[in-house]
Design brief:
Helix content is about 35%, strand content about 20%. It is α/β, with parallel strands linked by helices. The strands form three sheets. Strands 5-6-2-7-1-8-9-12 form an eight-stranded mixed β-sheet, with helices on both faces. A two-stranded antiparallel sheet has the order 3-4. Strands 10-11 form a two-stranded antiparallel ribbon. The radius of gyration is 17 Å and the shape is globular. The N and C termini lie close together (about 10 Å).
């Protein structure tokens, strides 16, 4: 089973979107795929897949939710009566939840697991990267210098822990005007190739801003996307197995 963390330096760069798209792409390849939503204080995976029912416990194990196409998901938001309520836990409780999701979930013959990690290099990121046997990381950034600087902290953390960086995803890389078809680099010129070389990522892709993706995520229908844009990264993950 391949286990891959998805991490960014800062929040709001599309990390959970990338996690969702990776899972959709993996699932389309015929791999039994799972998502562990490790962003415990900002969980958004259930929204992208329109998952609402609370998780059940059977024989002491958590039964993962399943999306319309069979992706298995565990998320703290599927344990709350109201998904808008905050999770007011400190480090030890958050770490315990990660342990429970990883060790006490009835995962069913999973080929590929993606862990949506919280932004930054704090306690939960350290917990995942030291206590779960990751096969690699996918880093998410945008073209902005500030975002890339913070993302490199996560890259350097991975290097210190000897975790390979499989892919770098530069999200919000461009916007194509629907009226004139002009490509606009709203957040600055793409630096994904240079940054990927700098951090030692094995592959890299750029994703544009898309109204289609926004609508699919907001409606919980991310699995209906025509092209994920992440096929080259999933190719690398499959080749690694």
């Amino acid at each position: 089973m391949g286990v891959y963390g998805v991490i960014s330096g800062k929040g709001g760069v599309g990390k959970s979107l990338v996690t969702s798209l990776l899972a959709v792409e993996s699932n389309r390849r015929g791999l039994t795929t799972a998502i562990l939503d490790g962003d415990l204080t900002g969980p958004s995976i259930p929204k992208a897949f329109n998952l609402k029912d609370n998780l059940l416990g059977v024989d002491g194990l958590i039964e993962p939710a399943e999306t319309k196409t069979g992706i298995q998901v565990v998320s703290i938001n599927l344990m709350l009566d109201d998904p808008s309520q905050p999770v007011l836990w400190k480090g030890p409780l958050l770490g315990g939840a990660i342990d429970q999701f990883w060790k006490e979930t009835n995962w069913k013959h999973v080929d590929m697991t993606f862990i949506d990690m919280p932004p930054g290099t704090g306690d939960i990121a350290m917990k995942v990267m030291t206590d779960i046997p990751l096969d690699g990381l996918i880093l998410v950034t945008t073209p902005q210098d500030l975002v890339q600087m913070i993302m490199k902290k996560a890259a350097n953390m991975a290097k210190k822990l000897n975790i390979p960086i499989i892919g770098l995803v530069e999200n919000m890389s461009y916007y194509i005007c629907p009226n004139c078809n002009t490509k606009h680099e709203i957040f600055g010129p793409s630096q994904v190739k240079e940054v990927a070389e700098e951090i030692g990522a094995l592959s890299h892709v750029s994703l544009g801003m898309s109204e289609e993706i926004r609508k699919l995520v907001d409606s919980g229908n991310i699995e209906e996307i025509k092209e994920t844009g992440l096929s080259s990264i999933v190719d690398k993950l499959i080749a690694k197995e």
